[in-house]
Amino acid sequence: MGTHAKVLKAGQMSLAKPTFPAPDHDHGRCTAEAMTHAEQVCARRAQKFTPIRRQVLQALLSSHRPLGAYEVIDELAKSMPRPAPITVYRALDFLMANGLVHRIESRNAFLACAHDHDETSMVAFLICDHCGSVGEIPAAPVAQSLTAAARASGFVPKLSVVEIAGTCAHCRK
Amino acid sequence: MGTHAKVLKAGQMSLAKPTFPAPDHDHGRCTAEAMTHAEQVCARRAQKFTPIRRQVLQALLSSHRPLGAYEVIDELAKSMPRPAPITVYRALDFLMANGLVHRIESRNAFLACAHDHDETSMVAFLICDHCGSVGEIPAAPVAQSLTAAARASGFVPKLSVVEIAGTCAHCRK
DNA sequence: CGGAATTCGTAAGCAAGCTTATTATATCCC
DNA sequence: GGGATATAATAAGCTTGCTTACGAATTCCG
Q1: A158 to chain B: which residues are within 8 Å by CB?
Q2: pLDDT per residue over A124-173, tens digit each?
Q3: CA atoms of A66 and A60, how far apart (whole Å)
C-alpha cells in the first residue's frame, strides 16, 4: 500500500487549510508564517514580542503536538541556558492572553495556534491518541447550540473546552 | 427552554430534575438516591461495592463540586485513618469504570454523577467559576455535529470532552 | 477445606505543574 | 538624565497527580 495520500475533503467548513497538518507539510514555512503573524498581532496591540516569548512560541511551533511546560523548558534548553519554570510560564501566559497559544486542558499542555482564526469564534481540538498531533476545527455552530442549552438552565457560559480524542487520518491505516 | 426528548430504557429514572442543583435542595436525599442507584448498578453488574468505594463515592457526593484526588483523601480522613493516594485512585477507577463518577479534565478532578443518565449518550459539563458546582446537560445533538465535523477531516473520534466554564444561575445575582 | 482471584493496605517515590520572593535589567517617557 | 514601569532572571519550594512494588486480607468457588 502506498501512501494513503488522501486529499482531505476541502468542502468542510469555512477554513482554507486542512484542519489537520499533513505529516509531510512544509513545516518550516508554516512556523515562519505563524511567527510573522505573531509579530503582527503584537505590533497591532502594542505588546512586546520579547526574545523569550518568541523562543517559547518557537518551541511550541516545533511540532503540532501540545507540549507540557517542562517539555517547553527542555526544548528551550537545547539552544540556551535552561530557563526556570516561572520564565516559561510567564511567556505562556502572555502568548495565551494574545491568542497565540491554546491550553489543552485534557493534557495540561500548550499548543501554538497555527491558523489565524477569528478570536471570538470557538474552536474544537482534535487530539490524535496515536501521533499526538492536534488539529483545530471551527466549532461555531456547535458552540451556539451548547450555549443555548446552557442558558436554558440559567448558566452563562464564558469559556468552552471542547477536546476530542481519537485517531487522525494519517495514523488510521 | 426546550424539553429534550427523553428516550429511556426500562428501569431508569427520568431526567426530570433541573440540570443545575439548587443551593437549597435536599442534599441528604439526593446523595441517598445516588447511593442506592450505585448499589443497583453494582448489583446488576455483579461488581463489588466495597466500603472504600462507597466512602469515596460518598465523599464526592458531599458536594456538587468536583474534588481533586487529594481533596477526596482529606474528606475521607475526617472519618477514618487517612487513606493512601493509591487507595483512593483505585476506588475512583472503579467508580469511573461503572459510570458513577466523571473525570473533569479541565480541573483534574472528579465528580459524582448525580443523575442516572444513559451511559451511551454524551454529556457536557457546566462548571460555575464562582461556586465551583457543576451541572450536566445532555449533549447528544452537539456530539453528533462535532463527530460529523471531525470525520470530515478524516478524524475518528473516540472520547469527547466538553466542559463549559461560566456562571451558574444561583451565583448570577 | 483450600487454592485462585480479587481487593486492599503499606511504603516509598517521582514528575509535572505552578508559586512566592527577591533582585536585576530593560524600556518608556517626561 | 532619571524616575516610573514593564519584563526577566535567580533561587527555592510547595502541591497535586499518579505510580511501582509487595505483602496481607478477603472473597469466590470447586
Answers
A1: 129, 165-167
A2: 899 998 888 998 888 877 788 888 888 888 899 888 888 999 999 988 87
A3: 7
Query: How do the domains of chain B map onto residue ranges?
Result: 24-115, 117-173
CB contact under 8 A, B172 and A164: no
**Measuring CA to CA, which residue among A83, A127, A85, A80 is closest to residue A106?**
A127
> Nearest to residue A42, comparing CAs of A101, A88, A120?
A101
Give pLDDT tens digits for A38-68.
Answer: 999 999 888 999 999 999 999 999 988 999 9
Residue range B119-129: mean pLDDT, rounded? 82
Chain B residue whose CA is closest to A145:
B142
Positions of E strands within chain A: 101-104, 109-112, 123-128, 134-138, 156-167
Of the partner residues B149, B158, B172, the one whose CB lies closest to the CB of residue A165: B158
Interface predicted TM-score (ipTM): 0.82
Q: Does domain B24-115 have CATH number 2.60.40.2340?
A: no
Selecting from 3.90.1640.10, 3.30.2350.10, 3.30.1490.190, 3.40.1160.10, what CATH number does the domain B117-173 have?
3.30.1490.190
Q: Which nucleotides of strand D lie under 7 Å from a protein CB? A: 6-13, 15-21, 27-28
For residue B18, list chain A residues with Cβ-Cβ distance below 8 A: 153
Q: Which residue has the cell 516545533?
A: A62
CB contact under 8 A, B106 and A161: yes
Q: Which residue carries 463518577 as its cell? A: B101
Nucleotide nearest to A110 (CA to C1'): C17
Q: Do A12 and B169 touch (CB under 8 A)?
A: no
